[in-house]
Amino acid sequence: MSPTAVAESSLLLWLLGALVATLAAYVSLGWVRQGWHQPSLAAGWRGLLLAGAVYGTGLCAAMVLALASEALPFRVGFRWGAVPLIWLGAMLAGLPVLAWLARQQNWLSIVCGALWLAALAVVVQSAWIWAAGFRPGVTWRPEFQLAAALTAALGILAALYLSFLGGGKEGRRRQVWRVGAAAVMGLALMAAQEVLMAGAGLLAQVGTVFHREASASVLALVGGVIVPLLLAVMVMDLQLRRRQRKHDLRRRNDRSRRGARLTTPDRDSIIRDSVIGPETGPQAAPPAQPSRP
């Protein structure tokens, strides 16, 4: 395969990773917003579980696609036992902060949530590099890890602000702001993992210990084809739920206005009652006058 073909395939996989990260950010933030409309946390627990699952799956799929996009001269594989552990850990670790954001959307929850989600992203991305078992071995550089965490934190903070406090909260163009927030969050996660991989020095490695176990090519196929399709369906589902909620709200408002019109007397009856008195049915006969003697 020529170097040009390798570069093209690497760019395609990287773009697929960016797409997965953006769609996962949009869906997870959308389900957090759905939880905001629920009367209690217990009423929206299914949506919050889905939000955590989508965020963790997006992190894992984007990292696998990024590793597969690297022009490495050897096959990359992962330890079988580590794959489900990293995936489940990424899904469950984000639930507390997502539940907090579903109930309170202020500066404290957004800042703490951004720091938590950024730290989770760096830990998950580092775990995938560790699970590959690169040889002769990765020497972690703290400055690169700190830079990756800072990049992810700033991007996630901007995305949460735009989605929950800025233009995505209310307004006629809030949907555009929400899409922009998801794109910022997805690109921040991609930038963070690129910084992390640069600090790990993957180009200096000569192979992976677990290349015969969970192949990166198979996982990249799942993360680059199946996961985006599922996320696209979830995006459509969120749009339908949003339209249904707006339709129900409009119907309730129409019913309340109609009820107010029925219970309020019209203008003609008010004028008539003020001039000749209220209608009390047929006029009663006037009292009989006493006869004169």
Written overview of the protein:
This protein has 293 residues and is an all-alpha fold. The protein has helices at 3-36, 45-69, 82-93, 95-103, 107-132, 142-164, 174-200, 216-263, 267-276; strands at 77-78, 134-135, 207-208, 214-215. The strands form two sheets. It has a two-stranded antiparallel ribbon. Helix 1 (3-36) runs antiparallel to helix 2 (45-69), helix 1 crosses helix 4 and helix 2 packs antiparallel against helix 8. The radius of gyration is 30 Å and the shape is elongated. The N and C termini lie far apart (133 Å).
Protein traits:
9 helices; 293 residues; mainly alpha; two-stranded antiparallel sheet; disordered N terminus; 73% helix; elongated
Helices and strands, with pairings:
Layout: H1 3-36, H2 45-69, E1 77-78, H3 82-93, H4 95-103, H5 107-132, E2 134-135, H6 142-164, H7 174-200, E3 207-208, E4 214-215, H8 216-263, H9 267-276
Antiparallel strand pairs: 1-4, 2-3
Helix pairs in contact: 1-2, 1-4, 1-7, 1-8, 2-3, 2-4, 2-5, 2-7, 2-8, 3-5, 4-5, 5-6, 5-7, 6-7
What pattern of helices and strands is seen along the backbone? HHEHHHEHHEEHH
* Overall shape: elongated
Specify the structural class: mainly alpha
Q: What's the overall average pLDDT, rounded?
A: 83
Quick overview of this protein structure:
With 293 residues, the chain is mainly alpha-helical. 73% of the residues lie in helices and 3% in strands. Helix 1 (3-36) packs parallel to helix 8, helix 4 packs antiparallel against helix 5 (107-132) and helix 6 packs antiparallel against helix 7.
